[in-house]
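Q: Two folds, back to back.
A: First:
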Amino acid sequence: MAQRIGLYPGTFDPVTLGHMDIIRRGAKLVDRLVIGVTTNPSKSPMFTLDERLAMVERECAGIDDAEIEVRAFDTLLIDYARQVGASIILRGLRAVADFEYEYQMAGMNQYLDSSIETVFLMADVSLQPIASRLVKEIAQLGGDISKFVPPQVREDMLARIAPKSV
């Protein structure tokens, strides 16, 4: 039987506890989970692509019994899914607004390649409010982000913000 490969794409700037929840749960659905870290021209990242790759790799290292690979990509998502041999694109949902956007994207991806399914996982209820954009804003304004990101990611963010607040 062929290995079932899933792709979880995102900017992961920074990787949050919500992302980690989707990664842990999604890894159980496939034989191998590729986490595709991408650039997004419409977003202004706090961390470079290399920093985000290292951050996601570090945080995924502790996930046992899962074959997880973290890779960068900057192509059309469906083309990248084909490139890594994914039969599933994994997406996390937090709210109705997420669903409307993701539903449209899933429809376009299905039109481009109907052999690749999009699977939605609802974020854990306690993690639904978490969004990388909001975490960055809270951190930049001096708020406590420890409930939203893994401890080392919090340290990474504080180190990045510290020089700007002097």
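A: Second:
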Amino acid sequence: MTNNLFDSKKPSGPVKTRGYIVYVDRSLCIGAATCVAVSEKTFALDSEAKAVILKTADQEKIETIIDAAKACPVSAIIIEDEKGNRIYPKE
């Protein structure tokens, strides 16, 4: 899977895609995989059952990535604009 990662050194981000910064808080992620179900071009689970960000994230609409973040039962996916303003979840 490592060759499919957006950034193999930081598999859960932060990564910049579609003008947004996306990352997964690995301490919150419980491996529910709802993000994978909603946004399979952006997210996958690694061997620790934690969400990682795929290099194909750029092919996904930002609305779909936000929907995946909203589907996460523990709000482990954080999305910010380029200036660092939190888009989801709201603080």
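Q: And?
A: The chain has one domain: 2-88.
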